[in-house]
Amino acid sequence: MKSRDNQRARLYRADDVLKPLACPLPTVKDVERYTAKVWASKRVQAAYPKATRDREPTVKDGRGTRIARGGSYAINIPLWARNEAVVLHELAHTITRRTFGPYVAGHGWEFCSVFLTIVLYMMGREAHDAFKASMKANRVKFKQPKTRKPMSEERKAVLVMRLAAYRLEQLAA
C-alpha cells in the first residue's frame, strides 16, 4: 500500500525558490540532453547506483496533458515545465521509485532527500542552500525520521518500580 502524500503542497511552495535559478530548456531535445547529463553525472551515479544502473528515463513532450509527471521509466514535460528545476523534480521521482520502490509517498521524505541532493549536484550550492532553507521554512521533511531504540528489560523494570513508588506516595498523601 502506498504511503499518504501529505506534504505535496508544502513542497510545491518550497520549490518556488528554484524558479529564478533554473535555466530554461525550450525543446524536448534540450530536456533529453539535460536528462542524459544528470544520468551521466558521476555524483548522481555514486549516490543512487540502483536507480542509475538502468538507462535514463525517456522524455515525452507532454502533449495532451497539463501536468509534468515522472515515473520509473519516463518523464512527461509539457511546455510550461521545460526548465531545470521541473526536470530535476521529475527525475527525482524516477530515482525515488527505482531506489525506494513504488510504495513510498510521492513527495515524502525519501523523494525530498533525493530532490535536494540532485539540486546540489546539478544546480549548485546556492540553489541547494536556498531550497533547503525554503523546505525548512515550509516544514517539508527531507531526512529519515529518527527511530527510538527499544527499551531494555532492566530499564522497564526500573520504570515500573518508580511508578509503583510514586503511586504509593500519592495514596499516602
Average the pLDDT over all residues and give the rounded result: 93
Give the CA-based shape.
elongated
Helix count equals 8
The secondary-structure class comes to mainly alpha
Please mark out the parts with pLDDT under 50 across 5 or more consecutive residues, or reply none. none
Q: Supply Rg.
A: 22 Å
Number of domains: 1
Proportion in helices: 40-55%
Main beta-sheet annotation: 3 strands, mixed
Task: Work out the strand percent.
Answer: under 5%
Order of helices and strands: HHHHEEEHHHH
- How far apart are the first and last residues' alpha carbons, in Å? 52 Å
Number of strands: 3
Describe the secondary structure blueprint for this structure:
Blueprint: H1 8-14, H2 28-40, H3 42-47, H4 49-52, E1 58-60, E2 69-70, E3 74-76, H5 84-100, H6 109-123, H7 125-137, H8 153-172
Parallel strand pairs: 1-3
Antiparallel strand pairs: 2-3
Describe it for me?
The protein is mainly alpha-helical. The protein has one domain (8-148). The chain has 8 helices and 3 strands, in the order ααααβββαααα. It has a 3-stranded mixed beta sheet with strand order 1-3-2. Helix 1 packs across helix 7 (125-137). The radius of gyration is 22 Å and the shape is elongated.
